Amino acid sequence: MSEPTRSRIFVTRKIPGAALDRLREAHDVSIWPDELPPTPEQLLENVAGCDGLLTMLSDRIDETVIKAAGPQLKVVSNYAVGFNNIDLKAAREHGVCVGNTPDVLTGATADLAVTLLLAAARRVEEGAAEVREGRWGAWKPSALLGVEPEGKTVGVVGMGRIGKAFAERMVRGWNMKLLYTSRSDQADVDESLRGRRVDLDELLAESDFVSIHVALTDDTRNLIDAAALSKMKSTAVLVNTARGEIIDQDALVDAIKGGRIFAAGLDVTTPEPLPPSHPLVGLPRVIILPHIGSATDTSRCGMAEIAVDNVLAGVAGRPLRCEVPL
Ligand code: DGY
């Protein structure tokens, strides 16, 4: 009996858990050894001759990469729920399937959006900096006053899996009124969370807290620009755990400096990493995290299992466990 064919797989970073062992047993796997991603040139070199790629959200997989891999490339399995780093048109044209890792990171990412909302609203970053830098003076009745979510209005931009999990937390935990944008009506959200689907302008004008949960596409790039920020309440808190490019960051700097919104909590920025010299860094009432929405052991190991399943299915010519429609 002939041995099953071993495919060549390139994995662009070490990932947590034991899932890669399953891939190594079945195929010839090379794993990029560094913590820093391969440069574009190193990526092109390493993908050559591969049948499958397991990629990170920070790897740009465009037509040049797909062509550099060669015509045998069958699958690009992204270790993320988002796939804006992959040129889907090029994948379709070259007959390459694309996989992602939904569901297992929904709760962790929603939790981080709640964390950022509370941290920004209660000025946690400024308070912690006072302690760290020896500026903690007397207890002052009016120092570091923040805003409270209880009973206020939360606006969820994009009611997908993560938007819904975030909305559930805010409505059930803080008895908030829910407004949301969505491509379609969501009867379950309206019923179980007393949500109301509105257009973006109404959501921005009415919400005390706005959280972004849409995918990055040509339609959502700079969705929250100067005009959008000017519609928000001056007491509003803006949270983004989706993708940095959805917010016009220069406009956000102006809005915070000008007191046009109260605070912002960001897990995603443009670029990533955001240089420490960027005007957003160190701005009072802005808290920035280094894209850690899915950074729990449970989520990252779950993502690894799905990403590996996607590669195994893709190189075998089977439908992927989680396949991105092309
Ligand atoms: C994803 O998987 O797309 C998330 O941004 C990771 O935090």
TrEMBL record:
One Pfam family, short name: 2-Hacid_dh_C
UniProt superkingdom: Bacteria
Enzyme Commission code(s) on record: 1.1.1.79, 1.1.1.81
Entry keywords, A to Z: Oxidoreductase
Span of domain D-isomer specific 2-hydroxyacid dehydrogenase NAD-binding: 115-293
GO molecular function, one term: hydroxypyruvate reductase [NAD(P)H] activity
EC main group: oxidoreductase
SUPFAM superfamilies assigned: Formate/glycerate dehydrogenase catalytic domain-like, NAD(P)-binding Rossmann-fold domains
InterPro entries (UniProt xref): D-isomer_2-hydroxyacid_DH, D-isomer_2_OHA_DH_cat_dom, D-isomer_DH_CS, D-isomer_DH_CS1, D-isomer_DH_NAD-bd, NAD(P)-bd_dom_sf
Domain named D-isomer specific 2-hydroxyacid dehydrogenase catalytic: residues: 9-323
Any one of the GO CC terms: cytosol
Gene3D superfamilies, alphabetized: NAD(P)-binding Rossmann-like Domain
Keyword Transit peptide part of the UniProt annotation: no
PANTHER family with a match to the protein in the record: 2-HYDROXYACID DEHYDROGENASE-RELATED, GLYOXYLATE REDUCTASE_HYDROXYPYRUVATE REDUCTASE
Family: Belongs to the D-isomer specific 2-hydroxyacid dehydrogenase family. GhrB subfamily.
Name of this protein: Glyoxylate/hydroxypyruvate reductase B
Organism listed in the record: Aporhodopirellula rubra
